[in-house]
Design brief:
The complex is a heterodimer of chains A (194) and B (157). Helix content of chain A is 34%, strand content 19%. Chain A has 194 residues and is α/β, with parallel strands linked by helices. Chain A has a domain of 127 residues. In chain A, the strands form 2 sheets. Chain A has a 5-stranded mixed sheet with strand order 5-4-3-8-9, with helices on one face. Chain A has a two-stranded antiparallel sheet with strand order 6-7. In chain A, a hairpin with an 8-residue loop joins strand 6 and strand 7. Chain B is of the alpha/beta class. Chain B has a domain of 108 residues. Helices cover 31% and strands 21% of the residues of chain B. Chain B contains 5 helices and 9 strands. In chain B, the strands form 2 sheets. Chain B has a 5-stranded mixed sheet with strand order 6-5-4-7-8, covered by helices on one side. Chain B has a two-stranded parallel ribbon with strand order 2-9. In chain B, strand 7, helix 5 and strand 8 form a beta-alpha-beta unit. The chains are: A alpha/beta (194), B alpha/beta (157). Strand 1 of chain A pairs antiparallel with strand 1 of chain B.
Chain lengths: 194, 157
């Protein structure tokens, strides 16, 4: 068989083609990664369901945001910077303090001793005139309070630095110690702005 | 002066451009991997810096299961038709509150039935928007029982 010589393909324009593709992708794509605070909305209650659930007053941590973006926490004005600490104190609770939520010693899978689980619920209510930025700031502080406590629990019971380092079963256990209970009340229009 | 008179031509060999395509392809692949396609053309004013900041943020996983709702002031070009009050944008057009239910249902129909419970709605809202409109959207989402939501936010540095 005779060796047929294949002519060399000129690859000089390859760079041009590649540049064209590159520019196309640069123009049509965005770099940013989508991030955000994940939340779960409550389902719409059924029409004839009984909605009056009696909740002990000490078990509720009421956060109100008014149309001027100011905070009222359990009846007292508060700065956003202090919200995380006071939320943590509330969620953690203390069996000896009658002001803080009721705690019940509970058996949690994976932990030998009984753990005090509080019944505290955080109630968040905003005005229609509240700005979205402030609302997210408050949500963020509340979620951060829970996350910090979960990290502490991960260290205390499982010896890991953060909640994310735990395996799935351990994460479930820690979630049972500090269940995230942020309830959002139906909005009010007090500030008068639409 | 002898320096200038010295017109001896030193020919430097042409630089080989054979590896240029490889370099460009490398950059191309980098951009293809690290970026995402722009989903819609925004008709409201909402750049990255208009989103609220937060620290406890999570990455949105499974982009194919995410539906987006944008809220913000219409761009100046649309201000005459749609005013300057914050408006809702679904897909690539302005929408009313009542359209959200339909939108969620249409999004659901495009997906596999098994994937429906994992669908997330991402709210991309300008941080200066009043909560009234956001609350209304949340109520609509509850009606459509699209309960998994994500308040889009950027990392606070």
């Amino acid at each position: 068989m005779a060796k047929r010589e294949t002519p060399e393909i000129n690859s000089g324009s390859m760079a041009d083609i590649a540049f064209l593709l590159l520019i196309f992708f640069l123009v049509t794509s965005t770099m940013d990664v989508d991030t955000g605070i994940a939340r779960q909305l409550p389902p719409i209650p059924e029409k004839n369901a009984i909605t009056d659930v009696e909740i002990n007053e000490r078990n509720v941590f009421i956060v109100l945001i008014n149309a001027q973006d100011r905070l009222l926490v359990n009846g007292k004005p508060m700065d956003v910077d202090d919200l995380r600490e006071s939320a943590k104190e509330f969620i953690k609770s203390d069996p000896n303090n009658p002001e803080l939520p009721v705690v019940t010693p509970t058996k949690i899978a994976g932990i030998n001793n009984l753990v005090n689980v509080s019944e505290g619920v955080i109630s968040l209510q905003n005005d229609r005139g509240t700005t979205y930025g402030r609302y997210i700031e408050v949500q963020n502080e509340l979620v951060a309070a829970y996350n910090e406590l979960r990290n502490e629990a991960a260290f205390q019971y499982f010896g890991k630095r953060t909640f994310d380092e735990l395996n799935e079963d351990q994460q479930e256990s820690v979630k049972k110690i500090y269940p995230q209970r942020i309830s959002e009340a139906e909005p009010k229009n007090v500030g008068g702005k639409k | 002066m002898a320096k200038f008179g010295n017109k001896e031509k030193k020919t430097v060999g042409a630089i080989s451009t054979a590896s240029l395509p490889d370099v460009v392809f490398m950059i191309l692949f980098f951009f293809m991997i690290s970026s995402t396609m722009r989903e819609v053309e925004l008709q409201i004013e909402l750049s990255g810096s208009d989103l609220p900041q937060a620290t406890e943020i999570k990455k949105l996983e499974k982009k194919s299961l995410v539906s987006y709702i944008y809220v913000g002031k219409p761009k100046p070009a649309f201000a005459r038709m749609y005013g300057t009050e914050p408006r809702i944008q679904l897909n690539s057009s302005f929408a009313d509150l009542a359209d959200i239910y339909e939108y969620i249902m249409a999004e659901r129909q495009q997906r596999d039935e098994a994937e429906v419970p994992f669908m997330t709605t991402s709210l991309k809202v300008h941080q200066d928007t009043k909560m009234g409109i956001v609350t209304d959207i949340k109520q609509e989402l509850r009606k459509a029982s699209a309960l998994k939501i994500n308040y889009s936010a950027r990392k606070r540095i």
